[in-house]
Amino acid sequence: MNDRIRQILEEVAAGRLEPAEAERLLAGLGVAYAELGHTKLDLHRRTRRGIAEAIYCAGKTPDEILAIVRRLDASGEPVLCTRIEPSAARRVMRAVRGLCYAERARLLYRPRTEPPLSEDTILVLTAGTSDGAVAEEAAICAEIMGNRVLRISDAGVAGIHRLFGAAADAMRTARVIIVVAGMEGALPSVVAGLVAVPVIAVPTSVGYGAAFGGIAAMLAMLNSCSGGVGVVNIDNGYGAAVLAHLIVHGRPQDPPTVPANPRHRAKGRGVR
Fold it and tell me: Rounded mean pLDDT of 245-267?
């Protein structure tokens, strides 16, 4: 919250924000959520977690989505709508200026204008071109959160030599690697065996009958023999972006206090 207060005050000092509008924004910072009737909008999430609330749009009406976006905008929060259909996106974009729609990724969002938070890179690597929709969801969401993102597509195990060259350089320099794969889901295990950074595996629903809509890939990733592989849900590019962002930028916690062993407290006694 302190960062948001400082941002508002700097906007006033620079003459870009009227004092009355700043007063309204500051008053809203103490509100834990906004009651919209159909939605309780979490306006405090960015303060708690460093990541603002994203709006999962599947099952919501265009009018509900529009009301949520307008309230986010009024609060100065980032706008990020996932799994939104083109007709609903067009409805919102007609009413709210400055939004972009990525149809393949099914994302409606306000582009980030600030520079990335650090020089660290999140690499989004796909096994096949058919995994691109989920990968693009992960990449755009990570960019909106303030990350540098590099994309490499179609480097699956059916042609493992494609992982070498430019892809190998990208894997060596990335801080986190998001690997998106369907079919048998083998690529995250291969990547994790080559790098010294966390690998986030995203199973996709791409594949023939025995792929079971991504279950086969998910089980393969969960059973990876390479350590350091974290697995998110099927087709969950957004979840992978959140996890990658927290790995790169999550706030460090104080180490836990470990009680002293009572055997070591007595004077004159050595450690046995």
Answer: 60
Q: What CATH code is carried by the domain that includes residue 153?
A: 3.40.50.1970
Q: Are 111 and 94 in contact (CB under 8 A)?
A: no
91-113 pLDDT per residue, tens: 999 999 999 999 999 999 999 98
Task: Give the residues across from 147 on adjacent strands.
Answer: none
Task: Specify if 8 maps to a domain.
Answer: no
Residues 38 and 153 in one domain: no
CB atoms < 10 A from the CB of 187, how many? 29
Residues 101 and 157 grouped into a single domain: no
Residues in the chain: 272
CA separation for the pair 136, 107 (Å, rounded): 9
How many structural domains does the chain have? 2
Q: What is the pLDDT of residues 14-41, one digit of tens each?
A: 888 888 888 777 766 655 666 677 877 7
User: Which H/E stretch holds residue 37?
Assistant: none
Q: Is residue 13 part of a domain?
A: no
SS3 of 226, please?
Answer: coil
Which residues make beta-bridge pairs with 152? 125
Q: DSSP letters of 153-191?
A: ----GGGGGGGSTHHHHHHHH-SEEEEEE-TT--HHHHH
Is the pLDDT assigned to residue 8 strictly greater than 60? yes
User: Are both 150 and 232 inside the same structural domain?
Assistant: yes
Domain boundaries, position 39: 30-109
